[in-house]
Amino acid sequence: MPKPLYQSLVLAILYFLLLGYCHYEFVGKLFDYMKFNSELDLLKVFVSIISIVLIYIVSYSNRLKYTYLQLVYCLLLIPSLVLFAFGGGGYDFYLTTMMACLLMLMASKLFRPKVIVSHQINTIVLSRLLLLMIALYLLGIIAQGGLSYLNFNLSKVYEIRDEANSSLHPVFAYLSPIVGKIFIPLVIVMSVIQKQYLYAALGVASSIMVFGLTAHKSPLIYPILILAVYTIPKRMIARLLAVGAIGLVAISILDFTLKQELDSPLLGWFGSLISRRAILIPSHLNMLYLEFFSNNLHYYWADSRLSFGLIESPYPVTAAFLMGQEIFSDPELSANTGWVGSGYANAGLLGVAFYSLLVGVIISYFSSLGERCGERFIFSATFILMITIILSADLTTVILTHGLVAFLLITMLIKRNAFH
Length: 420
Fold this sequence. Notes:
transmembrane helix, membrane, 16 helices, 2 domains, globular, mainly alpha, about 0% strand
């Protein structure tokens, strides 16, 4: 067994066991009102560990796609196995998740796409064009009275967000994710590589302004994540993803333990935000989606613009709001989930299979882009987009609204070996 694979396996199993302990001892008990359960099953623990070993062995390669697969396993596969083994998840949930990961893996290995190119332009010119579009986007918000909602206080974002967004033209609902998840990451990464630090600083400042004008917190985190990922050597990224996840879970366990011992209002928030909200809830929602839509009608993409309104929706609201209403009794809660839950909501197992194959194709294409333009550049530039696909959006929404098409069009303009 190659040493990198052995190290990845050890880290993956350690991550699974630590996250399982965190769920069983803390999350499942403290957040039972959110449908979490503490239910340890040793047979399921054994099945989960065997599954991790097998899928890691089959996945292993030295190409960029292996790094993307590791990201999927850290954010989707292992948290799902934790819910299965430590949280009362059923075998149907386990089999659906494994099917999704295996089909994604198969598609990523079998599909070997050629990169589509167009007229290629100087990358510094491209950075300037992207900065110009970002500036026009920010000026568009300001022209609609956006400065009256300008806020950099994290504690007030929920008070301001609805009003700030309702004051904007509906087209900005499409522009904001593209600017925040595609244009700004590309500007930051390209500028750092080219040592155009003024442009990189403008990209970071733009991300902060997007937060201030739209009251969405994610743009504050994006530059940090992008730059952190870019600085990691390519050969270490896959393993350091697991190391980072282990560290976050370990701090969460310490935080929850101190909360129980000291009962301070200052404690417990880190564990809740990271281990519960960021790591476990997306897979938890996948499980709840499967439970609900196993017994109710599917959407068949009735709410997607790809259906052109030809399919009548069986529900008055989208799947995310339907789950908020039916599962959590909160009609204003948007319970967004990634490709497994949204695929199942649309067409059951066929929907999951279709989305899984498509995710594998996307990963394979990103890998080919990395070989052509620079692997660290492509991975860091697509890092936020991949997290969105895995955790928080329907895949058709990612393609149309969250900027996947925009990213692919921009990469058509980048010269070969521009960022190697």
